[in-house]
Amino acid sequence: MIRASALIAATLALSAPGLAMAQIAPEVGASDTDSATVGVIGNVPAQCYGGTLSGDGSLDLGVLIDLTTGRLRTDLATPGEVLVGSFCTSRSTITVNATPLEAQNFTVAPPAGFSRRVHYLASASGWTTTPASYNTATAANAAATQSRDSAFTGDITVAISDFSTDGGETLRLVGDESYRGVVTVTLTAVN
Amino acid sequence: MHAPSIIIAAVTALLAMPVFAQSQPAPQDMPVTGNVPLICALQTGQIQPGTSNNVIGLDGDTLRIAQFVNPDTLSVKAASATVRFDAVCNFAHAVRVESANNGLWPTDAQITQAPAGFAFAVPYTASVSWGQANGQFNTDAKSRRLVQQILNVDTPVAGQLDLKIDIAEGASNVETSAPVIAGNYADTVRIFLEPR
């Protein structure tokens, strides 16, 4: 509070330069006219906002297997999520990271012929010319980070595709009421 | 005239501090979810090549025996076959083998009495091999009733379930090698893959 008071007082003194001049000793060369220049400056920091998730914010695939074979469905699909109103005030990068779908209750190593993990490709489009993408089945994901050279605001569509069973398509998935993974999209301002 | 410049700079710095705190990366997490229902599936069976003895083959779901009795003695002639089913259970489960009649019994309802010394029902064994579970199920044909055996399996299993039906030479529900009363004989064996 002490600092705030001092600043206010100083600002008041600035607001009436003629009066201030009258209270101090005359300088050599003083006249009846005086002026002062006050610079007004500000800045817009480089910052990003990730937007607001559409829907319930999750990518729900429902039943993962063909009920007659026990193997991963070949027609898996889910509507994409949209990050509405994302923006960055400077050039930026967009990065997609993802973890595979994993059985949450069957946590031990699956027996022969079974798997407890499903891989997929996560992509984020609308921000950069080339969508950022991350495949949980591969160790290297060079396309996971994409750069944009200008400030931007818009929607980012997040989608998942290219599903595969960890260990090979001949494996069945262990029964589990909850398989779960996470897709993370990160906008980072670049100064 | 230097003092105003200092004051303005100080105000700017004070206002700027919370703004810079907003320039951190902006991550958004989206859970990806799904489920795998607990299922068991059993496909149509096929006789394993090389396992048939005195068996014509599978007619739909019916295992037909070529020659049920020895024509010279009228006692039961040995017969066996292994039927293989492609199957899967994606959770810990049980195998239940059920005989509807506890042996092979006449399908002709008119046969109600058996003369002494004649067999009127025929016992057999059913062996099951499924994953790490193996079991042998014996019918004795002493009484006509439903009998069953249950094997617990602690893990998911995918592969082949083998069911071996084995009728011993001279099998009888009275004395071994007793002659069998004329008629058609049948039983129904059911296999269930089910929750424990």
How would you sum up this structure in a few lines?
The complex is a heterodimer of chains A (191) and B (196). With 191 residues, chain A is mainly beta.
| CATH topology annotation of chain A | Immunoglobulin-like
- Proportion of helical residues of chain A: 10-25%
Classify the oligomer: heterodimer
Dominant shape of chain A: rod-shaped
Overall tally of structural domains of chain A: 1
- SSE pattern of chain B: HEEEEEEEEEEEEEE
Mean pLDDT of chain B: 87
Which percent bin holds the helix content of chain B? Answer: under 10%
CATH topology of chain B: Immunoglobulin-like
CATH class call of chain B: Mainly Beta
The string of secondary-structure elements of chain A, in order, is HHEEEEEEEEEEEEE
CATH architecture of chain A: Sandwich
Percent strand of chain B: 35-45%
User: What's the total count of β strands of chain A?
Assistant: 13
Q: How many separate domains of chain B? A: 1
User: Which secondary-structure class do the elements of chain A indicate?
Assistant: mainly beta
Q: Number of helical runs of chain A?
A: 2
Q: For the CA atoms, what is the radius of gyration of chain B?
A: 35 Å
Give a quick account of the main beta sheet of chain A: strands, pairing sense, barrel closure.
10 strands, antiparallel
Biggest β-sheet of chain B: count, sense, barrel? 6 strands, antiparallel
Question: How would you describe what is shown here?
Answer:
The complex is a heterodimer of chains A (191) and B (196). Chain A is mainly beta and 191 residues long. Chain A is built from two helices and 13 strands. Chain A has a single domain, classed as Sandwich (Immunoglobulin-like), CATH 2.60.40. In chain A, strands 1, 2, 4, 5, 6, 8, 9, 10, 11 and 13 form a ten-stranded antiparallel beta sheet that branches. A two-stranded parallel ribbon of chain A has the order 7-12. In chain B, strands 2, 3, 6, 9, 10 and 12 form a six-stranded antiparallel beta sheet that branches. Chain B is elongated, with a radius of gyration of 35 Å. In chain B, 30% of the residues are buried. Classes of the chains: A mainly beta (191), B mainly beta (196). The interface between A and B is large, with 66 and 39 residues. Strand 3 of chain A pairs parallel with strand 1 of chain B.
